[in-house]
Input
Amino acid sequence: MSLMDMLQNTIAKQVAGNAAAKLGLPTEMVEKLMPMAQSMMMSKIATNAQKPEGAEALMGALKKHTGSLFDEPTAVDQDGVLNDGQKMMGHVFGGDAGVNQAQNALAKMGGIDASKAAGLLAMAGPLVMGALGKKNQEQGGFDMSSLTGLLNQEKQQAKAAVPSGLGGILDMIDGDDNSDIKDDLLQKGMGMLGGLFGKK
Output
């Protein structure tokens, strides 16, 4: 089972109740949107790691992420985790413009406030890094080749996991254009989130 499979089919459901209570959202909504937030984070992390400086930064960050949050994911609503997640968003999405693009896209797809979408992304980031950290520990430490190889696989899993037609949103977020994603694509996303992610 891939890391994305575990994050989206197991972890997302385990954290939904705590995350929903923290953000003031319905649990069902979090169950649908958290997998998309996780896909956004994993895909962008993998894209960043395609550059040597990005991979080196990620290797350094993994020294701080030992996988403990992956073992106890319900701690995702703790303030310390959220603070780390907020900082992570800036690094992963490349500053305020990239963060705004990602959180606005998630907000429009879910019909929620951008601040709540930001909260979901701030939780998704540490969960993704926790999964990578756990894998790093299990393998006795990644080298550059094994890390980028794993990330390429997980990026494909992230894109495969989203409902058909939403891959374009991940592609835009992965790119360097931080302009707002077109409303027609986001409207399509709003309809599709009730599909794959809504299945029990």
About this structure: The CA atoms of residues 65 and 75 lie 14 Å apart. Residues 3-193 form one domain. Residues 194-200 have pLDDT under 50 and may be disordered.
